[in-house]
Structure formats: C-alpha cells, structure tokens
Design brief:
The chain is mainly beta. It has no helices and 11 strands. Strands 2, 4, 5, 6, 9, 10 and 11 form a 7-stranded mixed β-sheet that branches. The protein is globular.
C-alpha cells in the first residue's frame, strides 16, 4: 500500500508557472506507475499526465501537451508536475494517483486504472 501527499498548489496569475509534487510513502515507489488528474467544480475528474514506473514513458492530455511536464524521482519517492503558461481554465484540484498493475513501461490514463489517490492540491489561476 502507498500513501500519496500532494503539495505545491496555490494562486497564480495567468501565464505563470507552478510545480506540483506528490510524495509517496513506502519503499516500493518504483513499482508504481503514476498519474496526475484534475477536477474543476462541477466537472468530472480528468486525466492530465501519466508516467511509467521507470519514468521512461510519459503521456499527456492534449490540453496540456507541450506545456506541462510530468517527471519522477524514484530515489525521493516523488512525482512532479511542472505547469507552465497557466490559464484560468487550468483552475482545479489536482490529484496524483498510483497503480501497481501492469508492466513496467506502461502508463495509465483513466481513473479506474489507479489504486491509490492523494487528497489533492488546489490550483487557482487568475486572469
């Protein structure tokens, strides 16, 4: 089992950047594929980015491709989401998620594929 704690959210102006972090408990972090999702008020949770266990494979939602970057440091049990050129539409609660299923080079893009979730961190982008 793994526990996830997100941090790094906050209030920024449009065009600014933020880096979210997700710290995982336990000594088996490298066995989990990781993902970031977000949920805006009144909307369903949506996929943002995913990364494989080793970090060799990544995948992004079209809305953030080329703007956000997911990465991980298995030695620090942490996954990151670097967000640049933020827009008001990026305002949401951001969640990290972990899954121990599948092969080492695989990433996952739907919420049902993840076993564990953090509590979320609020990102608010003002215009």
């Amino acid at each position: 089992q793994v526990q996830l704690v997100e941090s790094g959210g906050g209030l920024v102006q449009a065009g600014e950047s933020l880096r979210l972090s997700c710290a995982a408990s336990g000594r088996t972090f490298s066995t989990y594929a990781m993902g970031w999702f977000r949920q805006a008020p009144g909307k369903e949770r949506e996929f943002v980015a995913a990364i494989s266990r080793s970090g060799s494979s990544t995948y992004y939602a079209d809305s953030v491709k080329g703007i956000f970057t997911i990465s991980r440091d298995n030695a620090k049990n942490t996954v990151y989401l670097q967000m640049s050129s933020l827009k008001p539409r990026d305002t949401a609660v951001y969640y990290c998620a972990a899954t121990s299923t599948g092969s080492s080079g695989t990433y996952y893009i739907t919420p049902l594929q993840y076993n564990y979730w953090g509590q979320g961190t609020q990102v608010t982008v003002s215009s």
